[in-house]
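Human: If only I could read backbone structure tokens as easily as an amino acid sequence. Take your time, and here it is.
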Amino acid sequence: MNTLAENVASTVDQAVHKAGDMRSPGRFLVSAILAGAFIAVGEVLLLVAVSPFVAEHAAGVKLLEGAVFPIALTLVMFAGAQLFTSTVMIMLVGALSGRTGVKDMLLAWAATLVGNFAGTLVFAAMVHASGVTSSPTAKAMLTELLSAKNSLAGGQLFWRAVLCNMLVCLAVWMFSRVRSSGAKIALLWMPVLVFVAVGFEHCVANMSLYTIGIFEGQATFAELGRNLVYTVPGNIVGGGLLVGAVYWYTSGARRTRTSTVAVPSMASGQVASRTLTATP
């Protein structure tokens, strides 16, 4: 298992690669679109496979929801895609290290958020056309989930989003620390199970739920916009500050003054910056 310092260094390298990947914005955007679609897979699975249990008021249904939804993050991490909530942590650690800049961080955040939304929108359109969410139980669960989110106050949405991305980024952080595929899957599963079962707020998952609702005539873009106003900042605080910044600090990492050269990015073959100088 990687030490904290090794994991910070690995995370910084990921930030450098993401910054390099953005030199090919089309490819970066497509990767972000894929991540949005992968997260939407989890929401569709809930609506189709879990809604019959919800309709029967089955005991432990919240744990069942939590047990199946992590397939979404598993797809993102093993297939490879640009997800906003983990990019928040990665790019903030890169900026804190001095290896990437604030501009890189903000551009990556914006690009992944836009791409993820596009992915959820396209996937929701395909799901609607397929008719798989047209069953009475799926529609009832969709209505219930959307109503519950719309009823939350802004502060509740914000703090649930903080707690959500703290858990999601802990899952990604632990995924990077271990080498076994089985351990990686288990460590992705556990924190995501908690956030879904408890009812925390993930902005990209909400994009997918609301866009499905929009195509089904059960939600509006205004309702989605209100949700994102609170959940996006909350996810940034939870993943960026409570995980990324905290582990950067506790690992003993130091900010560097960097001299950079162009190197190939492992993610896409594009150019990225590589540090040559040591810490001052």
Notes: Residues 157 and 230 are 6 Å apart (CA to CA). The first strand starts at residue 260 and ends at 264. Residues 25-55 form the longest helix (31 residues).
